[in-house]
């Protein structure tokens, strides 16, 4: 029977390590559980070498799956500590496994679940921990966890829609830039040398391409390349400042086609987040504060902070929303109806459903329109460079034919 080495934590949260004989890792896990040890690492003795793992952190999809499983376990009546122990042992992401083990130890030590989760803000953001706190207070933790998992799943879908809208044009433009640079840097100089040796009169398109090739191959081309890279890093640093983030987010919202899509995404995220918080029993002022921080857009965040201040002064929710000019008229009208009827959470969820469908349609339309445009652009640019190199050869062949 093979011998395994293991590392883990006991019920007191203390790290333990040792060796144990077992037929496989599943049996070892079962034996350790009987000794109230949660394993964090298991490997067969003599085969301890593991490939290095890169990255880290917890993905939204992993958090959604955990939340869904957690809600089912709580609904089935399993104790909180046991749920966390089982989910930690099944978790493949080592970072998430450590977080769950830490949460379990804190809960076992007498802390409530929301306070334990607040110790890991990179995994459990304020929205998550506040909703869990509301669920604990109201005795509806399983229901809250179900709402949370649905919210995270929809948020993941929304982010995927944004990526699919941006990745295609960025990918095509990057490929085009790479191909053109390679042609100008390596291929065009060969043709230029050939033309110089033959003494051919070059047409204007060929002269332009050869001039561009000389520029790319010179120190100026390299400096421009370095300048572009530096500009991207500078833009990233500027975006990390409050003023830069607000300015760039405002520009994004005003871009003709992309701006409309980003506005719809911002509305969908705002209404889904606030609706989920209100329906979970989180006070509206606290809900607006959390929604502003998790909006993902500085313009929307600033607008929601103004809305919160107006509510604190006793005003209605819809007036400051109208004044912000960020949200469409239909959204403010529907929120006004929800406010008057006392069904704000249901109305916000309906708006979110509508705008999420709008985002799906907008992304499909955008990709459908971009695909032929990008193909034509790539063909014209790359084809233009290639044809301009062959134009002098055509004229040379014509002259030779006339001579004979």
What does this structure look like?
The chain is mainly α. Among the domains are: 42 residues; 94 residues, Receptor-associated Protein (Up-down Bundle). Helices cover 76% and strands 6% of the residues. The protein has 16 helices and three strands. A three-stranded antiparallel β-sheet has the order 2-1-3. α10 crosses α11. The longest helix has 60 residues. The chain is flat and about 95 Å long. The relative contact order is 0.08.
Report Rg: 30 Å
DSSP helical segment count? 16
Low-confidence stretches: 48-56
Approximate helicity band: over 70%
Query: Beta-strand level of the residues, as a percent range?
Result: 5-15%
Describe the strand arrangement of the main beta sheet, using strand numbers.
2-1-3
The tally of beta strands, per DSSP, is 3
CATH topology of the domain at 60-153: Receptor-associated Protein
**What is the CA–CA distance across the termini?**
89 Å
Q: What is the architecture of the domain at 60-153 at the second tier of CATH?
A: Up-down Bundle
């Amino acid at each position: 029977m093979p011998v395994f080495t293991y590392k883990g934590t006991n019920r007191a949260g203390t790290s333990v390590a040792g060796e144990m004989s077992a037929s496989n890792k599943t049996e070892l896990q079962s034996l350790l559980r009987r000794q109230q040890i949660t394993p964090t690492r298991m490997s067969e003795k003599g085969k301890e070498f593991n490939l290095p793992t890169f990255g880290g952190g917890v993905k939204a999809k992993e958090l959604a799956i955990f939340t869904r499983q957690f809600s089912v376990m709580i609904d089935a009546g399993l104790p909180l500590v046991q749920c966390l122990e089982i989910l930690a042992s099944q978790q493949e992401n080592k970072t998430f496994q450590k977080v769950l083990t830490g949460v379990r130890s804190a809960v076992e030590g007498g802390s409530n679940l929301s306070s334990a989760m607040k110790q890991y803000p990179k995994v459990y953001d304020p929205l998550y921990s506040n909703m869990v706190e509301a669920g604990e207070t109201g005795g509806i933790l399983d229901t809250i966890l179900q709402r949370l998992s649905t919210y995270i799943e929809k948020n993941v879908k929304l982010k995927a829609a944004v990526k699919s809208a941006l990745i295609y044009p960025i990918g095509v433009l990057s490929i085009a830039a790479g191909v053109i640079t390679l042609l100008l840097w390596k291929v065009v100089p060969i043709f230029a040398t050939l033309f110089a040796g033959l003494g051919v009169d070059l047409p204007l398109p060929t002269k332009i391409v050869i001039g561009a090739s000389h520029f790319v191959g010179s120190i100026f081309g390299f400096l421009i390349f370095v300048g572009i890279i530096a500009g991207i890093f500078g833009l990233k640093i500027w975006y990390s400042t409050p003023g830069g983030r607000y300015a760039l987010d405002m520009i994004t919202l005003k871009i003709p086609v992309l701006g409309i899509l980003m506005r719809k995404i911002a509305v969908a995220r705002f209404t889904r987040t606030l609706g989920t918080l209100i329906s979970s029993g989180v006070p509206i002022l606290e809900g607006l504060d959390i929604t502003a921080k998790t909006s993902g857009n500085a313009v929307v965040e600033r607008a929601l902070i103004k809305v919160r201040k107006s509510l604190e002064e006793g005003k209605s929710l819809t007036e400051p929303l109208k004044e912000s000019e960020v949200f469409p008229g239909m959204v403010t009208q529907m929120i006004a109806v929800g406010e008057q009827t006392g069904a704000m959470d249901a109305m916000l969820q309906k708006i979110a459903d509508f705008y999420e469908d709008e985002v799906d349609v907008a992304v499909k339309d955008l990709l459908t329109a971009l695909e032929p445009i990008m193909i034509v652009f790539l063909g014209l640019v790359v084809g233009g460079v290639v044809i301009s190199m062959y134009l002098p050869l055509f004229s040379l062949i014509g002259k030779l034919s006339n001579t004979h």
